[in-house]
Amino acid sequence: MADNVMKLYPGNWLYNAGVIGFLYSLEKVEKIPYEDVANFNDDGSVEIKKDIFEKLKVRERYFSEEKEKISSIVGKSNLYRNYLQEVWKNKFPDYVKKLSKIEEKDDTIPCGLCYRKIHLSDDDIKELENLGLKKFLEGISKFDMRHLSTLGPSMGEFPNGFWNNSKTFRVCPLCAYLIIHHHLSLVELSDKSKIFVNAPSFKVMWHLNRYVKEIYEREKIEVIRELLGMSIIELTLKLHIQLGKWTMMNVEVVSQYREGDNDKIEFFSLPYETILLLLDGNIARLINDIGEINVLNLVLDGKYREILDYGERVFKIGLKNKNDWGKHEKEFINKKIKMDKNKANLISFSQKLFKLYALIEEKIGKGVYV
Ligand SMILES: [Zn+2]
Predict the structure, then answer these.
(1) Is the pLDDT of residue 73 over 70?
(2) Cα–Cα distance measured from residue 239 to residue 232, given in angstroms and rounded to the nearest whole number
(3) Contact 140/111 with Cβ under 8 angstroms?
(4) What's the CA-to-centroid distance between 295 and ligand 1, angstroms?
(5) What is the pLDDT of residues 186-224, one digit of tens each?
(6) Distance from residue 255's CA to the centre of ligand 1 (Å)
(7) What is the pLDDT of residue 9?
(8) Residues with CB under 5 A from ligand 1 (ion)
């Protein structure tokens, strides 16, 4: 680890969401563009300049006069319930500043979130303890299962070695700080569920989660797989990055929701074949140009043959004079097609559907999926 930079690798989704949430907060709260602080690498890692922790306006950020922002940063999650007690609040900025001096040392127990041996020097720890932060440091350095009702099934992702019988694992000083930002990267849907797009690349997560948020706000789409599908299309169209197959195969949506008194977590992913199609520039552009959610759904469902059938039906109706349309034909066009530009030019719309089918067929191999 270079002295002034730390390199973070993607880990479990909670940690990933913490890193992404922290970068969001830099932009939103500190007005620092992420490029000034973070550098995304194509191997999935992100390098963060350590001196950022000295520059953060921690006091204004978390403890504004009129309203204590810590509640919004720390959130209402059980995970952080005891994170900051009244007595520690004043000293919290001192702790954050010290993060600019974190190091890796071999004889440290690995962190259960980032798997790294990151720690503060003995002198720095002593200094913080003298400020009255001993209990605080002890508290945040342990991740306790009792606080993890929210994580439920995802705990399977954590290596068993960190559990032992105590069901507690060590959290390094950096992760203890990053993790309180995790909820900032979640997108809340109208049913109160919260979603995060997880991937083995911070670059992919940074962009996909932003697209999900933008698309959700713009189109009010609630269906997770449609949101994910559209976000991947956006990624293909806007970012010309070389994405490893392995990276995209492992893109998943983590969805948190309440059921009764319990927090539940579900994971959703698209089949690799679907992702492969959405990452194809021509296919992505065409689906985007068509702009019909039911066409996107045919792709997401793998019902490619139906795209052809749909195109043929539209084409046949398009050939007729509008006055000669029967009741069923009128209904079909009005119900199925949402975009005015497609309704106004059925022949052109049908040609796009034929082309989409042909591109898909070309991509996945003729005859296999029809
Ligand atoms: Zn860590």
Answers:
(1) no
(2) 10
(3) no
(4) 43
(5) 999 999 999 999 999 999 999 999 999 999 999 888 899
(6) 23
(7) 93
(8) 111, 113-114, 172, 175
Residue written as token pair 């089949």: 271
The torsion angles phi and psi of 244, rounded to 5 degrees, stand at: -65, 145
Identify the CA nearest to 354 among candidates 264, 267, 290, 300: 290
Which 8-state DSSP code applies to residue 168? Answer: E
Identify the H or E element spanning 170: strand 168-170
Q: What residue segments make up the domains of the chain, in order of their start?
A: 5-184, 186-275, 284-364
Residues linked to residue 188 through DSSP beta bridges, in sequence order: 194
CA–CA separation, 12 vs 19, rounded Å? 11
Beta bridge partners of 40: 46
Q: Say how far apart CA 89 and CA 184 lie, in whole Å.
A: 21
Taking only Cα atoms into account, the Rg of the chain, rounded to an integer number of angstroms, comes to: 25
CA distance 137 to 5: 23
pTM for this predicted structure: 0.86
